[in-house]
Specification:
Strand content: 35-45%
Oligomer: single chain
Number of strands: 11
Bound molecules: zinc ion
Distance between the termini: 30 Å
Strand order of the largest sheet: 6-7-8-9-4-3-10-11
Largest sheet: 8 strands, mixed
CATH topology: Metal Binding Protein, Guanine Nucleotide Exchange Factor, Chain A
Shape: globular
Amino acid sequence: MDKSGRCLCGKVSFAATGVVLHHHACHCGMCRRWAGGPAFAAATESVSWHGAEYISRYASSEWGERGFCANCGSHLFFHFVSGDDYYITVGAFDDDSDFRLVGEIYIDTQPPGYRFAEGLERLTGDDFLARYGLSPDDS
Ligand SMILES: [Zn+2]
Ligand SMILES: [Zn+2]
């Protein structure tokens, strides 16, 4: 599915193709520190950015970087540096009414103070990394 979106101030906007409407919540410590809570991000096939000069990229690991608007601070994406695919924060899309939370990852580092609805697939960090062919040593 094609979808558009933008940051809070509008300096950065985007048009994404191949947006996957089923997404996960990530409870890992980096996402929670970055986002202030669990992070929602949707896989995409390709993204064209407008206002790319306002995007700041932070290398949060050897293999991943996180992007945000340098003007307003809105979280925009997680990106594997080895590829072209961007996982865009669900809240950045203009229409986020058709997204569905289908699972949770890094449940082994989830703090005890909150829970999502029952019935979601719940993966530990190691399970998640194994599924996507990443080594736990890379995290
Ligand atoms: Zn902005
Ligand atoms: Zn995470």
